[in-house]
Design goal:
Blueprint: E1 3-8, H1 27-30, H2 33-36, H3 39-44, H4 46-62, H5 67-78, E2 82-87, H6 93-96, E3 103-104, E4 107-114, E5 120-122, E6 141-145, H7 155-164, E7 167-171, H8 183-189, E8 193-198, E9 210-213, H9 216-224
Helix pairs in contact: 5-9, 7-8
Bound molecules: ligand BJW.
Ligand BJW binds at residues 9-11, 14-15, 20-23, 26, 37, 88, 90, 106, 145-152, 155, 172-174, 176-179, 198-200, 202, 215-216.
Amino acid sequence: MKKIVILTGAGISAESGLGTFRDKGGLWSQHRIEDVATPEGFARDPELVHRFYSARRQHAAEALPNAAHDALARLEERWTGDVIIITQNVDGLHEKAGSRGVLHVHGALSGALCAACAHRWPAPLQMTPETRCPACDANTARPDVVWFGEVPYHMEQIASHLEEADLFVAIGTSGQVYPAAAFVQEAATYGAQTLELNLEPSEVSADFAQHRFGKASDIFPIWVE
Ligand code: BJW
């Protein structure tokens, strides 16, 4: 087996103290998706959206990778074939654990994007509606994350990796958000073995051939060793 493609979701960062979206008490039980995770919500109330993301940016900056992020970085180092990490997470914890070349399909809290001229730059810890784009000077700065209705990042590269994968592993994702939820089917169609590692069966559990259920920081390091 040569190429392992790993998709991570919010569950892998849960034990680093970052809330997931759809678990009990998760982010989507405290905020309306339409208000904070759509371009329309941002146009309506940029202040609210900046407050939501600035708080999460601060929290992510203080968070540390857990045993699952560390095990993934170790796997990347030791595996003689390719390990491709695709994350839906915007928290930067894979990089903090030492992983490199991570594909951020939903962007990153560490990035700012100008909604007017598409310039990208490192986000300040606190962004506000007054944050100006360093390229065009408009106050149209937004977090460089992918909201509902927007096109996820690196899709062409991801499609090639899924086509070439010998093993596809998903860790800590509910399988409720597309296109990431369909990556397993895509990889399986091209012949990859598939494994789901999650606290509980996800929405797309039936698409995986193998499963291990439990906390990512317990089950993933065991799987890696
Ligand atoms: C643990 C654990 C522990 C807990 N250990 N496990 C109908 C059908 C198909 C698609 C659509 C449809 N209607 C609309 C769409 C499209 C839409 C969509 O998917 N909607 C669904 C609601 C149906 N998708 C989009 O709009 C996407 N764009 C798109 O499709 O463009 C078209 C296009 C595609 C491809 C090419 C060209 C064009 C964009 C989606 C953007 C999602 N954005 C967000 C916000 C990002 C920024 C931010 O962080 O704020 O991404 S929403 C949110 O959900 C975030 C996450 O990345 C994403 C997925 O969440 P995740 O990671 O799975 O977290 P949870 O909370 O859901 O699950 C956690 C899991 O962990 C649970 O299962 C727990 O059990 C487990 N867990 N603790 C292990 N300790």
